[in-house]
Write a sequence for this structure.
C-alpha cells in the first residue's frame, strides 16, 4: 500500500515538472518574440479593439470619406467639349473665325458677278460693274440673222452698209426686270381699259425697232463713260426721257437716215462713228393723234412719217444688239 502511494506521488511530481518546463520555455519564446516585435512596431495594447475598429470603418457608410480620392484623370482627346473647357486653346478655332466673318458680312450683302466672280456689297455697285465691264461681247451665234434683219429694206440705189462688228448687249438683271415690269403694267392697263387689241393684252404689243446713234470709243467688252459717246451712254444708263418720246424706226435704213449724213465728217476730230441699236420695244396702246401723251392712256405715238414710233417711257425700249458699220 505505501509502495503504491509513493509511486503515485512520484509520477505526479514528474508530470508537474514537465508542465513547468513547457510553460517556462513557452514564456521565454513569447518574451523573445515580444522583444523583437517591440523593436519593429509600436505596442498594441488592445488588439481586439483595433480589429473591431477596422471592421467598423470598413462597413460603415462614412467609409468612403476615409478612402483617398483617385488621381485626376486626363481628359480624353475624343471629348472635344471637355478638352476645350479644361484646356482652352491658344488660337481661336476656324469655325469661330468663320462665324465672326459671317456676322460682319451677311450673306444678303454679298452680290457676286456671274461673269468674273467679283463680289460687291450693294446691287448698285454690281449693276455698275456689269454694265461697264461686261456690257457687250462679239455675237457668236445668230450673226447672219441680225445682218439680214439690218440690211432688209435698204434701198438698192443707196450705198450698201459695210458691217464691221455685231455686238450682243448683256443687259443686267436689273434692266431686264425693269423692262418686264413695264410690260406687265402695260398688259394690265390694256386689260382694264377693255381695249380690243389682243396683241397688247398678250405681250404688251412688243415690236423689233431700230435706233441709230454714234460712239467715239473702241466699243469693246467694256462700256466707256465718256460724255459724248451716245451708244455707251444708252447701254450704261438706258434711254433718257424725251419730251416728244423716244423715236424708233422699223428698218435699219430709216434709222440710218434719221441721223445726218455728214455727222462723221463734221465730228471727225472726235473720231465719231455710227452704231445701230437693234431694240425690243413695248409699243402698248398706240395712238395716231398728235396731241396725246402718256397721261391720255396711250403708251406710244405714231410719228409724222407714219413709220416713226415715239415711245413715251424709257423702260419700254430694251437695246439688244449693236451693229458697227460704215457706208461703202
Amino acid at each position: 500500500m505505501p509502495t503504491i502511494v509513493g509511486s503515485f506521488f512520484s509520477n505526479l511530481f514528474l508530470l508537474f515538472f514537465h508542465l513547468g518546463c513547457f510553460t517556462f520555455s513557452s514564456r521565454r519564446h513569447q518574451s523573445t518574440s515580444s522583444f523583437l516585435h517591440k523593436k519593429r512596431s509600436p505596442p498594441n495594447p488592445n488588439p481586439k479593439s483595433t480589429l473591431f475598429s477596422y471592421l467598423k470603418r470598413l462597413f460603415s457608410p462614412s467609409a468612403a470619406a476615409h478612402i483617398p480620392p483617385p488621381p485626376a484623370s486626363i481628359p480624353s482627346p475624343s471629348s472635344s467639349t471637355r478638352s476645350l473647357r479644361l484646356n482652352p486653346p491658344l488660337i481661336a478655332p476656324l469655325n469661330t473665325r468663320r462665324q465672326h466673318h459671317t456676322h460682319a458680312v451677311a450673306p444678303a450683302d454679298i452680290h457676286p458677278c456671274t461673269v468674273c466672280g467679283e463680289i460687291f456689297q450693294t446691287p448698285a455697285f454690281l449693276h455698275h460693274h456689269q454694265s461697264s465691264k461686261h456690257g457687250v461681247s462679239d455675237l457668236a451665234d445668230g450673226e447672219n440673222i441680225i445682218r439680214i434683219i439690218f440690211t432688209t429694206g435698204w434701198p438698192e440705189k443707196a450705198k450698201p452698209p459695210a458691217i464691221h462688228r455685231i455686238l450682243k448687249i448683256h443687259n443686267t438683271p436689273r434692266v431686264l426686270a425693269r423692262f418686264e415690269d413695264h410690260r406687265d403694267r402695260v398688259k394690265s392697263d390694256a386689260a382694264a381699259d377693255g381695249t380690243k387689241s389682243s396683241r397688247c393684252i398678250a405681250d404688251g404689243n412688243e415690236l423689233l425697232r431700230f435706233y441709230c446713234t454714234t460712239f467715239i470709243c473702241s466699243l469693246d467688252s467694256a462700256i466707256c463713260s465718256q460724255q459724248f459717246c451716245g451708244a455707251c451712254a444708252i447701254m450704261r444708263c438706258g434711254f433718257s426721257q424725251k419730251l416728244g418720246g423716244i423715236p424708233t424706226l422699223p428698218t435699219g435704213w430709216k434709222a440710218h437716215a434719221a441721223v445726218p449724213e455728214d455727222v462723221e465728217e463734221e465730228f471727225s476730230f472726235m473720231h465719231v462713228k455710227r452704231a445701230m441699236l437693234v431694240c425690243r420695244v413695248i409699243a402698248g396702246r398706240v395712238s395716231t393723234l398728235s396731241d396725246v401723251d402718256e397721261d391720255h392712256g396711250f403708251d406710244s405715238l405714231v410719228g409724222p412719217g407714219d413709220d416713226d414710233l415715239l415711245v413715251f417711257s424709257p423702260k419700254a425700249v430694251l437695246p439688244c444688239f449693236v451693229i458697227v458699220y460704215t457706208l461703202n
Residues 77 and 83 are 7 Å apart (CA to CA).
